Amino acid sequence: MKARISDAQQLAHILEVYERASRQVINMDKSYIMFSPNTNQSMRTEMKACLSIDHEANGENYLGLPVSVGKTRKNDL
């Protein structure tokens, strides 16, 4: 998603609908958010507040695998 408050609000709504439908609660204390390196700090702060997520994923692993999946652009230069 784009780093916009409207997108964060939409994601928060989707997660809320999921919680109601599944009767499961997402533990935001265990949740992480990942940003593009060019996302400014004020937008990061606003989005984390909107989603109630305090932690940023920076080279984190989940089940032994890197969280970040995709093509590296360093080789494209």
Which tags fit this structure?
globular, alpha+beta, single chain, 2 helices, two-stranded antiparallel sheet, two-stranded parallel sheet
Overview of the molecule:
The chain is an alpha+beta fold. It has one domain. The chain is built from two helices and four strands. A two-stranded parallel sheet has the order 1-2. A two-stranded antiparallel ribbon has the order 3-4. A hairpin with a 2-residue loop joins strand 3 and strand 4.
In terms of topology, how is this protein built?
Elements: H1 5-22, E1 32-33, H2 41-51, E2 55-56, E3 61-62, E4 65-66
Sequence of secondary-structure elements: HEHEEE
Average pLDDT confidence is 86
Task: Indicate the multimeric state.
Answer: single chain
Largest sheet: 2 strands, parallel
| Structure class | alpha+beta
Number of helices: 2
Sum up the overall morphology in one term: globular
Cross-sheet strand order for the largest sheet? 1-2
DSSP, total strands: 4
Cα-to-Cα separation, first versus last residue: 25 Å
Share in β-strands: 5-15%
Helix content: 25-40%
Number of domains: 1
Q: Show unreliable segments.
A: none
From the alpha-carbon coordinates, what is the Rg to the nearest angstrom?
Answer: 14 Å
Q: What is the compact description of this entry?
A:
This protein is α+β, with helices and mostly antiparallel strands and 77 residues long.
